[in-house]
Amino acid sequence: xxxxxxxxxxxxxxxxxxxxxxxxxxxxxxxxxxxxxxxxxxxxxxxxxxxxxxxxxxxxxxxxxxxxxxxxxxxxxxxxxxxxxxxxxxxxxxxxxxxxxxxxxxxxxxxxxxxxxxxxxxxxxxxxxxxxxxxxxxxxxxxxxxxxx
Length: 149
Hints:
Order of helices and strands: HHHHHHHH
Radius of gyration: 15 Å
Helix content: 55-70%
Number of strands: 0
Shape: globular
Number of helices: 8
Strand content: under 5%
Structural class: mainly alpha
Largest sheet: none
């Protein structure tokens, strides 16, 4: 079987761990294997697996990687998943203890991801949810606080 079919089969199982979903989609985005052509069903199954899971189980790095991957695969990134990630990250960043679990690099990558998906895809395109925009703004402020002397 082709690698894309094996990967899709992995992501469609009920027992896939959050770290695996995040890592697979992040790797595909880094390799520029976007949600078109033979990899389309892999992205669909990965997004479905993430939506079906409890985002509270994702480590901060996994959430950052997932947001980054979805921003790179913008054309087929489901807005409900991006909004769910934005809501989860915003909730974590509202708590000082939870906010410290994010690295500056993770904050920067996540801020970029939500800034990327919050802007219109084209002159006539609509921006993805307001939650993503709020998360981008909050992340940028927190990133400035983390890296400021």
